[in-house]
Amino acid sequence: MESIRINYLTVNQEIFDMEAKLNDKKIIHSWAMYDWANSAYALVISTAIFPIYFEANTPKIINIFGLEFPNTSVFSYSVSISFLIIALLSPILSGIADYSGRRMNFLKFFTVFGAVSCIALYWFTGIENLWIGLVFFILASVGFSGGVIFYNSYLPQIASEDRFDQVSARGFAYGYIGSVILLVTNLLLIFFPDILGLENTQHATRVSFVMVGLWWMIFAFYAFRRFPKDQINGPRNNIISKGIKEFSTAAKKVFSKKNLSLFLLAYFFYTAGVNTVIYLATPFAKKVIGMKSEELIITVIIIQLVGIAGAYLFAYVAKIRGNRTSLYSMLAIWVGVCLMAYFVDHKTQFFVIAGLVGLVMGGIQSQSRAIYSKLIEEKESNLASYYSFYDVVMKCSVVLGTFCFGYVEQMTGSIRNSILVLIVLFVVSMILLAFVKMTDKDGIRI
User: For residue 399, what pLDDT is reported?
Assistant: First the structure.
């Protein structure tokens, strides 16, 4: 009897310890701080400063291997290439992470890899060393995207299902706040380069790329201190083949669930539109309505600040009306944004569009992550592989979206026509979502 009692107490203690790890404020804070860290890349490099710098320091038409491309198309294609690379690599890497139990090692690797690539952009000065700008922009994107796979996979380990929406939204809110702080700091440096004795605005802009890399690494490793500990499985043989098998197992489980597969298909189309807007909004605004660099920066800051409110707003809508209502509301706004962008011809109109983009940008990313976390049934095993599959869907969709955007501009000679592609993507996703049952593994409506 004493032995049974001891075992009973041991099991109860293990259950208590497991529950104590969920919804721990310090752990959730640390998890969200990684968003604070890596969002510096997402804002400064992919959206705000680097696209403007790239457009300003390269000719309108770039000759590559005897072929001529608009510089905005070259930038668009480089985004496509970076996402294609990580889409090919992540199934193997995440499978290895699940098999070996070393998710944190991979998260740290991609963090350092991406941050160092950002720092290397310092040496990109123009068309004479175009390869530096393209190669290290692509590698920084690979580092960012690779890290997000493993970062997202921690969500079911730090929060109970009823908190997914709120915790996911907190991550995006932290990211918006942190990235805006760094962006404003960078802008002060760029507008007043003499403060630190820098040569000119171009030199100060290149220094800002270094600051992004340092910010990313410093705050990421601060955040890692309280992440859940990995369950290290020890040395394994044939780790690559076993890693691929681990990912394949997760993929088969996803495909065996019609509802989950339908959601991912809808996600594929709408996230293609969302991320294409994120990466190509600033080149679009500069080319179509001639917005100046400082005006574009103001636009990006508007998007980020409104995005904080948007992430929490649609988490609240999901709480009281369900995830379907929340998601459909945002997709309807996205369609409206694209229609407005197609006809935009004045800067004031673009500022309004930017506000709407900010409202739904963080919300739709946050809600998508939360919905997927609710729909998958396994919470302990294959987590990196499950989230890698989710991320591969996103990466492939961005390849489609950015390639089509750049290709339509190249073929028609008008970047405005590329907007029509995005409208189609959002409408198709809304049709597919109509067939998705928004219920979790216990059959409860979400």
Answer: 81
* DSSP secondary structure of 110-152: HHHHHHHHHHHGGG--SGGGHHHHHHHHHHHHHHHHHHHHHHH
Q: Residue 329 — pLDDT band, cuts 50, 70, 90?
A: very high
CA–CA separation, 7 vs 24, rounded Å? 26
Per 3-state DSSP, what percentage of the chain is helix, strand, and coil (rounded to 5)?
Answer: 85, 0, 15
Average pLDDT, the chain: 82
- 3-state SS class at 238: coil
Q: Is the separation of the CB atoms in 402 and 79 below 8 Å?
A: yes
Collapse the DSSP code of 424 into the 3-class scheme (helix H, G, I; strand E, B; otherwise coil) and give the result. helix
Q: pLDDT, tens digit, for every residue of 39-78?
A: 989 888 887 788 888 888 888 888 877 778 888 788 878 8
pLDDT at residue 424, as a whole number: 92
CA–CA separation, 38 and 44 (whole Å) = 10
CATH number of 22-433: 1.20.1250.20
Rounded Cα gap, residues 439 and 446, in angstroms: 5
Instruction: Tell which residue, 166, 109, 99, has the closest CA to residue 363.
Output: 166
What's the DSSP call for residue 162? G
Residue 242 has pLDDT above 80, yes or no: no
Per-residue pLDDT, 20: 44
Q: What is the pLDDT of residues 164-181, one digit of tens each?
A: 878 888 887 898 889 889
Residue 146 has which token pair? 């690779």
306: exposed, middle or buried (Cβ count in 10 Å: 0-12, 13-18, 19+): buried
Q: How far is CA 6 from CA 9, 16, 17, 19, in A?
A: 5, 15, 16, 20
Q: How far is CA 421 from CA 267, 277, 435, in A?
A: 16, 11, 23
What confidence tier does 98 reach under pLDDT thresholds 50, 70, 90?
low
Q: Count other Cβ atoms within 10 Å, centred on residue 186.
A: 24
Residues near 408 by beta carbon (within 8 Å), at least 6 away in sequence: 417, 418, 420, 421
Cα end-to-end span (Å), the chain: 44
Q: At what angle do helices 164-191 and 201-223 cross, to 10 degrees?
A: 150
Query: At 243, which amino acid appears?
Result: G
Q: Which position has the higher pLDDT, 334 or 358?
A: 334
Specify the higher pLDDT residue, 299 or 385.
299
Q: State the pLDDT at residue 378.
A: 59
Distance CA 326, CA 229 (A): 34
Give the whole-angstrom CA distance, residue 392 versus residue 86.
8
Please give the single-letter amino acid code of residue 271: T
Residue 339 CA to residue 365 CA, distance in Å, equals 21
Q: Indicate the length of the chain as a whole number.
A: 446
